Amino acid sequence: MELVYPPPHYLFFEPLNDVETLKIWNNYKENHGEYCEFEEIDAAEMNSVDTFSPWFENWITRVPASQKTRVRVLLVMHSEFLTYSCQQMLRRSLEQRSFKCRVWFHIEDPSTIQPAIVSRCIVKKVPTVIRTPKIERLSKTNHSLSDE
Length: 148
Known about the structure:
Number of strands: 5
Number of domains: 1
Helix content: 25-40%
CATH architecture: 3-Layer(aba) Sandwich
Distance between the termini: 48 Å
Number of helices: 4
C-alpha cells in the first residue's frame, strides 16, 4: 500500500488484526525518516481524557528534534478504545492545530470512531490477513493447567 508524502491524517481499518498496519507504519518510517519524526501510542493502554489529553497536548506542541523535520506523525493503535471525550479533543486538534503534525489511527471497529474524525482522515482498508495459529501439543514432561 503506497502512502503519499507529506502524509495526511489516515485512518487504517484493519479488522481482526494490527500486524499489517504496523508493517505499513514501519515501511513509511523507513522511507520518510529523513524528514519526519514518528511516535506511536496504544489507545488500549492510554485512552481516557485524563491520561491521553495531556500527553497529546505535549506531543502536538513539542518542537521537532531536528531542523530537517517537516512533519511529525503519530500512530494511535487500537483507536477504538479512545473515549468519547478523547475523540472530541482530537477532533478539535485535527481541525485547528495540525499544520505540521499528522495523526494516523488504527482501528478494528469503525463504528467506534466519531464521524467528525473520520471526515478529517483518508480512510484506508488494510487487507485482512487471517493467520491460523500453530497449536503444538505439550509433551508429557511439560506441565499445563489441565494436567494438574
